[in-house]
Write the structure tokens for this entry.
Amino acid sequence: MFRSEVELRKLFSNDRVALFIISLLSLYIEVMLIRHLGSEIRIFAYFKNLTLIGAFLGLGVGYLYKPRLSPLVTLGCITFIAVTTHPITGFYQISDFLNLGDFNMWEMAHNDVIRAMAGLLMLTTLFFAVIISMAPLGQALSDIFDRSQNRILDYSINIAGSLIGVWFFAGLSFETTPPTLWYLIATAIIFALWRWDTQKSLAVAVSAMIMIMALNHVPALAPLEQIWSPYQKISLHQFGVRYNASSGDTKIIEYKKLQTNNTLYLYMLDLSDKNRKAHPDPFPPALDRYHYYDLPYNFPNRLDDVLVLGSGGGNDVAGALRAGAKRVTAVEIDPTIISLGRKYHPENPYGSERVTVVNNDARNFLRDTDRKYDLIILGLLDSHTLTSSFSNTNLDSFMYTTESVGDMRRHLKPDGVLALSFQVNYPWIGSKIYKMINQQFGRPPVVIQAYSRHFIQGTGGTYFLASEDEKLVMDKVKADPMLSRRVEFGAKAVEVYKNLDAKPQTDDWPYLYVQSRSIPKLHLLVSALLISIFLLIYGFYFGKPRRNDIHFAALGAGFLLLEVSVISRFALFWGTTWLVSSIVISLILAAILAANATFIKSAGRVGYPVLYGVLFVALAGLYFLPLTSNWVVALYMAPFVVIGYLFAKSFNGAAAASRALAYNLFGALFGGLSESLSFVTGLSGLIILAIAFYAVSFFTAGGEG
């Protein structure tokens, strides 16, 4: 306990204490905005680097912009973001204005210029809000670094604060805390650090927080239950479908709808025998075995062991139990969705003794288990929410790759069946799935379009069925007239799938929703907008870059590209989750701290030629190294120690610390935009691009000219 307010003020006035807290606050606000904007406004989730680029630009501007900005600006901007992201304000329509539906594949499919311009204007407004919110924090850090007597030590404190900031927010996420608390914590840290005591400032903060809390409790918008899981915002709604029965009565079928990030995720449906018999009109007995969630169980010879990947709220698991499966393994990445399934699913499939629930990434589960199954069901997973037409790699990108199908095949029994389901809205998506199954099994899959007349019979989708037993699936089809009709119905689609020139996606190019190896037009449009904003700000406030500025910018660009590549590779083995990303970022920051310690101990005597030589060899090794095991992926962390030492050497010798940091962030901005080239080159191409940026940094190292 501090004896007096004077002692507390004295502590916060210490540069290194302030540096640590501001660094923590900067990363905390950065990841808070990344998560909140990505959850409420879909385009910020699909252009993953959008908020990150805004934060980098804001901090960089703060490092160089001399007129003072009050931290109240930060508070005002994050309040503005919190308010405008609420559905009541209409900013959530940005994606709709740009006509970015679930399956528009990054394209602007309409010619409504006014709506498109309105969407771009709202996007630009929020992007500027992110920039301005970070600028005062950049100024505060700039002041401390410009006074620094030991840059590398202070830079290490900066990294340590950033590390704590990442885990502080990750901890809040895994405790399923709501955004209201996130913003309150940010406000409390800002006030503690800058010690405002004027009534005016306090009134601004209190009013802002009241507005945020009020908007998050609008009764008209309140769902049955809303939870911020570690991965997404989940809303549960109660509904009922009225229909006129053949008896003349009006009946109601009740169901619950689950939304993730304001987008439909699933319906929790009661397809039990009891409910079907109570409602024979929408559930005619002749179709009992052929509805979407019942169809796959017609094919295996036995159902001793069933694996459901992406079990969600439990519909597929309930189907397995109705079909008589003896043992069901249900794999779901989001613990909150599992919890809601246990609590609300009308058939309570997760409560069955025959069901083992595994909270894990599906691809990681396949890698770790040695069990084999009679039936593997790859459901719709999260493919139309977090992994959507806009994303690079998100929650389940690596499940829909050729290598993933190979993993599933290896876990089938000799007569086991794979049932991969997908909502094929574009023929070339179906063609990709068709061809990757054909490639792995050595024969084409059987395709059944299992779309229902009404969603209460099952969500519906296209099944791609394959087995180790060459004749098994087709023999089942030939023996069942209903299945035969379903296969015949999809025959035209199969002919299209065969003839389309669509290349199957791979772990290196996991872009199911991108038709070909090209940068989508809308991605180019948004990138051009961001570059224009940067050039406008830079040209207005800052002068011509020097040689050393280019050096630090190239270091920043290479670093971010390598970081993106490493996170993607780790996701292959441990899942594309917040936890994995936090761990990877933490390992990178820890590597930088280790590099700083090595630099201090060696007095920076290692020269640039040696450092760059080791770095280029390491990066080349990563490019050619096959990803076959966890220890190989761990090798991806090795170059960051060299990179950290290299930056420390350049930073220690820079004429102006704040300018070096600013240009490093500006470079990271362009590195983030350059990630879009992976649509052409694949993820491995990011390593080649990083090598190119580090080559630029090598030729511009060692001078201020």
The first helix runs from residue 5 to 12. The longest strand covers residues 233-244. DSSP finds 28 helices and eleven strands in the chain.
